[in-house]
Design goal:
single chain; alpha+beta; 2 domains; four-stranded mixed sheet; about 10% strand; globular; Transmembrane protein; transmembrane; transmembrane helix; membrane
């Protein structure tokens, strides 16, 4: 920016209000009065409204037009172009990750265990048994003396890993249904989360890519589905149940079925390492955990506007902690804003 511009223009930006000495104009982007001098207009100052992710409020930012010879990084046009390139690059990385996920974990024979087209009956039986022990409901009922259905007896480390991932996935529902960019995904969020919950995490990767599309003003916002309303209004319950399931899964993996012949903690750890290196299902769970570690802070960071204002700082920092950050988001979701 030329030195003359700096000498002629004095800018004050305080929270949601922006004042530049001189003529007053109304900016409809954020509905507040902005004073803009004729001198600064001639010198090429341009107002850019940017949404503050950290504060969840509209904040005006003043930049110069591209091509004014003012130095710097080229102004608004170059910023928009750079952001667009970064968006497209991120989408390309996500779609590539989706292709690798499907090929490596489902189709190719090189990963541990059997691919989908050669899955063994033993793996199918383990998957059915793990599903029956969903959230340890049957094992806990049996332990309490209720034996309407007998829970399959599987290694507690495999049961713990399975339910840990399921519990974490369960808590993604309020986050997805309250995502500010969810309307860019034209499909059903109910089906997407259902497939993610009960089939595989492979469905979440395309969603993360599609939500980066440019917003379509011609596409009207969709009404929240019944499932979405239940999950957002009951976000605190979802967070408590999912967090408890993850905590119980960790305890169960190392101490569950103590009356069985599953050995000490070191024995169970050795089983886990062997399990991960020989079973495709367990190997896929590790992939899911790694992706969740990336997607959780990303999605929460994009939706801090949904958090109760007095809990904002807590969620902002906890979002990087696996599982804990998602529990915090569910417990601190601003239901009045969502409704």
């Amino acid at each position: 920016m030329p030195a003359a511009t700096l000498l002629c223009t004095k800018t004050f930006i305080y929270r949601n209000q922006s004042v530049i000495h001189g003529r007053q104009e109304y900016n409809s982007a954020f509905g507040r009065n902005v004073k803009l001098s004729e001198t600064s207009g001639r010198l090429g100052l341009k107002l850019k409204v940017k949404k503050s992710i950290q504060l969840g409020r509209w904040r005006p930012i003043f930049t110069t037009r591209a091509g004014d010879g003012g130095g710097g990084d080229g102004g608004v046009d170059s910023i928009i172009e750079r952001d667009d390139k970064l968006r497209k690059l991120t989408q390309a990385i996500l779609w590539t990750a989706e292709g690798v996920y499907v090929l490596w974990l489902f189709l190719l024979p090189y990963a541990p265990g059997d691919p989908v087209w050669a899955i063994s009956s033993e793996t199918v039986n383990d998957l059915v048994g793990l599903s029956l022990n969903f959230f340890f409901i049957l094992p806990l009922l049996n332990a309490g003396g209720i034996h309407l259905i007998e829970a399959p007896v599987l290694h507690p480390m495999s049961e713990g890993l399975f339910n840990f991932v399921i519990g974490w996935t369960f808590m993604f529902a309020p986050l997805l249904f309250s995502d500010r960019k969810r309307d860019r995904f034209k499909g059903s969020l109910d089906l997407l989360w259902g497939f993610q919950m009960f089939l595989t995490n492979t469905f979440l990767i395309p969603y993360m890519a599609i939500r980066l599309n440019k917003s379509d003003s011609e596409y009207p916002p969709r009404a929240t589905s019944q499932l979405g309303s239940i999950m957002t209004r009951g976000a605190s319950v979802v967070g408590l149940v999912g967090g408890a399931a993850c905590l119980l899964s960790t305890f169960w993996a190392f101490y569950g079925r103590g009356d069985g012949d599953f050995g000490s903690i070191s024995d169970r750890w050795e089983f886990l390492l062997s399990y991960l290196s020989s079973e495709r299902l367990a190997y896929a769970f590790i992939w899911d955990i790694c992706l969740y570690i990336i997607f959780q802070p990303w999605l929460i960071g994009d939706n801090l506007q949904n958090i109760q204002e007095d809990k904002l700082d807590i969620v902002r920092y906890l979002r990087y902690v696996p599982v804990v950050g998602l529990v915090a988001y569910c417990l601190c979701l601003d239901l009045e804003d969502e409704n």
